Recover the amino acids of this structure.
């Protein structure tokens, strides 16, 4: 910010801050949050975000169900989660305040847009009295401001339509937070100019609102200080901010390039996986072929067809979409088709909680098919780890000629954090099994080391062969219904998954390899577990953390690790699926910690649970 | 591999696999298989570029008997699998073999969408108006009222009219043949291959076990000339043992007339396979009493195939943006350096 003199301003340095923007789903909270995140990345803080929004495109105005929010934690330290308790809550209406107030720290800043606090809105949120007018908010640093009025004043002489002005109010809140955290507003002005290109009135209205919010900070009596969060100490390299779903597409694309295969994506739109299709559809100059199928089934089956014909094939889905893909997955296992199936998990069952996060499809990934149909399963643990996990799932699929399920979830898919951009040349090699050696070609023979079958693709002379879902003879691939052959093939399909364990790294614990408690996790609980366990370790407790990327098969050293601890705690956003599998497979007395509320676990929940377990 | 084998012309034998054919003796499928094996070597395509895809059902056993690349998929999903393979490698000559249950019931959704997209894939739908593999239940093309294992009192299900369904789904090549009309069937297959877009060929096929004789009026030597109308491009729609019957348009409806007294040949409709209205009227005759059953190409239309347009987009993107470089893509948007 150049045109405001803030020399008189006091500044205080902080290590870590969590803020949340909350309003109606039409209030532009997601955009506000994304802008603040991008700006935070520019400042060089570590950050982690959590967008949370209703599944309806336009949920009823002013209601609790219609509240949309965006949370970001940013820090000069290495952080792993979007944060638990809030330092700042921005509430654009009573419903937003009602839903989120419980998360605001004592003496936290509560920025209220009084224009949203009409009688009607108060009633919709279930408030009989206006809480802004009694003493119930005394515990917070309350800033009441009629944002609508101030934005109208700021744009007064322009003769803009009230609609445009109303849509700019979120920029006021953003401007205020930029002031509060001593930011430069230029990144957002640049964004507005490129987003609204020719709509000069919209650009002007938003820019003025942004500046009005910023300047408002200067005039405040209640807050004399603005805060600065020094740069985080990152590893050397080039960074960008990235969302999990985008990282998935980068990982898939990198794997296809590394393997020297064309990427084919067949899929059907579904929340929260659709962004994967959107991104891939924009990579046409990489030769990526995207096929928006007529349904989830055709999405996965077209990918099987493409894989059979020689592409590196992928499909992605969520919730009930995964159920629809089940039949085809059994075909992919039976025909030994290399492909990746991404499941961006959401709250279930049925359509469940379309925009909320959950880890409840692990059983399905492991067991949810007819027949004995083992499938390799890989999971991602943070938005940036989605890149690595997608790359790894692709590598396994191609090196073992096998379908691989990649589990992420809504929290990872939509969450973002800084990503140390890898160099393409430094990514590990990926081998595949395409061959033109017709002389020695047996369609269903198996490589000793990987149990991969040769990938003889149509168009290659001399390797014409038939394959399908009926039981087969090893070698020729011919249909075979013999009793003993079926047992042999069933065991072979299991071995194909088991043997992957030779080709994946061991699990590396944070902390010692033995002790009082091992916290075992998978997927998006990573950040919360890691932060909680670090705290325990620095308190001198004998607690360790293992986070599994490979869920089927498990890393080879998992058994030894499990046996090294007196207690095992498995926190999950489901009712104990990994816990059941671990208990069955390793006969250990592990304990679950399960919160199934469509939201990520928090650090303090896990920390408190660890204390409870350790103290016995 | 003999590198020169491309020069040796392919024959029917090249397309016969080593698998024992397992259809019931007398099944109409045998004749169709034989025609396909005769036609493939005549198409001028290297053997390795054929891909035969099927779903589930008696007909869907087909790929096992063809010595080509083949995929026997799952119930109804063949169009999706064929689409993926074709998009992966547009050079392939993709043939999809399906049945009335596979294509019209469990795979109905995929069927209409492949037609709408117009991928260059040839669909051979064996229509025997019954479920064979599951042993005799009625199918979506079984005539209303028919008694079958699952309809002991007769069906109360109105049947699909396959050519009409295909027309409604914006199909660009819609034809019908009969298992017993072997030469005719070969011509249809060649025309289906020549058509750039999804070709739908409905083939009436006799299931000797569960629906024997359902098309006997169309195949019986004595009767068939009176009941089958063989469509020929640019020729009047004439049929009958004495070739004295024809189809005329009266108002907006077709009518069977006798050529001689009241009507003469010039009154008879001339077949134009590019005329959609005529295609619709002809497809109407599928279950109609008192009318002949048309076979041949009912409708044909030229338009770009899905894969053509897809490849064009990819080529354009490469031209405009240059071939994608990952390192560049990763760095798009705001980045920052940590030293
Ligand atoms: S059941 Fe009918 S359709 Fe199936 S093979 Fe036998 S005769 Fe052919």
């Amino acid at each position: 910010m150049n045109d405001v003199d803030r020399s008189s301003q006091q500044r205080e340095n902080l290590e870590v801050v969590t803020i949340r923007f909350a309003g109606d789903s039409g209030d532009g909270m997601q955009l506000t949050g994304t802008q603040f995140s991008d700006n935070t990345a520019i400042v060089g803080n570590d950050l982690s975000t959590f967008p949370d929004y209703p599944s309806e495109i336009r949920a009823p105005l002013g209601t609790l169900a219609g509240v949309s929010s965006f949370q970001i934690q940013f820090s000069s330290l290495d952080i792993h989660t979007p944060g638990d308790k809030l330092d700042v809550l921005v509430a654009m209406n009573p419903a937003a305040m009602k839903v989120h107030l419980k998360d605001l720290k004592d003496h936290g800043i509560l920025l209220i847009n009084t224009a949203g606090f009409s009688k009607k809105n108060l009633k919709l949120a279930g408030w009989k009295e206006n809480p802004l007018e009694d003493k119930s908010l005394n515990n917070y640093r309350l800033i009441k401001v009629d944002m609508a009025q101030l934005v109208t004043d700021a744009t007064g002489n322009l003769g803009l339509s009230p609609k445009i002005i109303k849509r700019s109010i979120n920029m006021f809140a953003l401007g205020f937070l930029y002031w509060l955290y001593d930011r430069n507003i230029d990144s957002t002005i640049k964004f507005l100019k490129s987003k609204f290109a020719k709509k000069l009135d919209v650009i002007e209205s938003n820019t003025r609102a942004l500046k009005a919010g910023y300047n408002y900070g200067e005039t405040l009596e209640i807050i004399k200080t603005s805060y600065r969060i020094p740069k985080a100490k990152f590893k050397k390299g080039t960074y960008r901010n990235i969302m999990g779903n985008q990282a998935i597409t980068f990982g898939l694309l990198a794997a296809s390039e590394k393997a020297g295969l064309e990427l084919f994506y067949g899929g059907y739109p579904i929340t929260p996986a659709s962004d994967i299709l959107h991104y891939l559809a924009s990579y046409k100059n990489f030769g990526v072929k995207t096929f928006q199928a007529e349904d989830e089934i055709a999405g996965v089956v077209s990918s099987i067809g493409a894989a059979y014909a020689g592409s590196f094939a992928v499909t992605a889905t969520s919730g009930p979409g995964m159920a629809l893909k089940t039949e085809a997955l059994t075909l992919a296992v039976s025909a030994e088709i290399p492909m990746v199936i991404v499941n961006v998990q959401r709250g279930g069952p049925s359509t469940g909680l379309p925009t909320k996060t959950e880890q409840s499809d692990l059983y399905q990934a492991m067991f949810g098919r007819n027949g004995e149909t083992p499938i390799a399963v890989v999971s991602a643990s943070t938005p940036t780890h989605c890149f690595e996990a997608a790359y790894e799932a692709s590598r396994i699929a191609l090196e073992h000629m096998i379908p691989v399920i990649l589990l992420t979830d809504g929290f990872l898919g939509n969450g973002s954090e800084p990503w140390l951009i890898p160099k393409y040349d430094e990514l590990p090699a990926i081998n595949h099994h395409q061959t033109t050696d017709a002389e020695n070609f047996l369609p269903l023979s198996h490589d000793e080391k990987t149990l991969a079958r040769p990938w003889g693709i149509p168009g290659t002379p001399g390797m014409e062969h038939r394959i399908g879902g009926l039981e087969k003879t090893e070698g020729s691939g011919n249909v075979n219904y013999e009793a003993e052959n079926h047992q042999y093939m069933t065991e072979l399909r299991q071995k194909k998954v088991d043997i992957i364990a030779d080709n994946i790294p061991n699990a590396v614990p944070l902390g010692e390899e033995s002790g009082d408690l091992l916290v075992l996790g998978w997927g998006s609980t990573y950040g919360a577990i890691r932060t909680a366990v670090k705290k325990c370790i620095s308190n001198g407790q004998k607690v360790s953390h293992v986070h599994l990327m490979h869920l089927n098969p498990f890393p080879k050293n998992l058994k030894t690790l499990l046996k090294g601890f007196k207690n095992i705690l498995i926190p999950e956003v489901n009712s104990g699926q990994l816990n059941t599998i671990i208990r069955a497979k390793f006969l250990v007395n592990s304990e679950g910690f399960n919160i199934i509320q469509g939201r990520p676990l928090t650090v303090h929940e896990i920390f408190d649970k660890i204390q409870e377990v350790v103290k016995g | 591999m003999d590198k020169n084998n491309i020069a040796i012309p392919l024959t029917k034998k090249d397309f016969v696999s080593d698998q024992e054919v397992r259809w019931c003796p007398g099944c109409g499928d045998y004749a169709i298989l034989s025609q396909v094996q005769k036609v493939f070597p005549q198409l001028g395509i290297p053997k390795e570029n054929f891909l035969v895809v099927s779903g589930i059902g008696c007909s869907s056993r087909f790929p096992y008997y063809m010595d080509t690349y083949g995929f026997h998929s799952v119930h109804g999903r063949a169009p999706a699998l064929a689409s993926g393979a074709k998009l992966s490698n547009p050079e392939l000559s993709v043939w999809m073999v399906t049945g009335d249950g596979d294509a019209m019931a469990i795979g109905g959704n995929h069927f209409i969408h492949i037609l709408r997209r117009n991928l260059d894939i040839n669909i051979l739908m064996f229509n025997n108006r019954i479920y064979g593999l599951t042993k005799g239940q009625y199918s979506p093309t079984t005539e209303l009222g028919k008694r079958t294992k699952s309809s002991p009192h007769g069906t109360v299900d109105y049947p699909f009219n396959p050519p009409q369904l295909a027309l409604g789904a914006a199909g660009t090549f819609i034809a019908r043949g009969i298992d017993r009309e072997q030469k005719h069937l070969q011509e249809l297959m060649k025309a289906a291959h020549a058509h750039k877009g999804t070709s739908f060929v409905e083939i009436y096929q006799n299931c000797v076990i569960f629906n024997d004789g359902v098309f006997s009026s169309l195949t019986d030597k004595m009767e068939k000339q009176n009941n089958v109308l063989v469509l020929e491009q640019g020729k009047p729609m004439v049929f009958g043992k004495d070739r004295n019957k024809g189809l005329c348009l009266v108002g907006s409806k077709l009518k069977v007339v006798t050529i001689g007294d009241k009507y003469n040949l010039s009154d008879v409709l001339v077949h134009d396979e590019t005329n959609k209205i005529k295609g619709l009227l002809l497809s109407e005759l599928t279950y109609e009493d008192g009318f002949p059953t048309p076979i041949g190409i009912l409708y044909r239309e030229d338009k770009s195939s899905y894969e053509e347009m897809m490849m064009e987009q990819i080529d354009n993107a490469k031209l405009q943006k240059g071939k994608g470089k990952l390192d560049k893509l990763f760095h798009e948007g705001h980045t920052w350096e940590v030293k």
Summary: The two ends of chain B are 57 Å apart (CA to CA). Chain B has a mean pLDDT of 95. Chain B has twelve helices and twelve strands. Chain B touches chain A through 65 residues (CB under 8 Å).
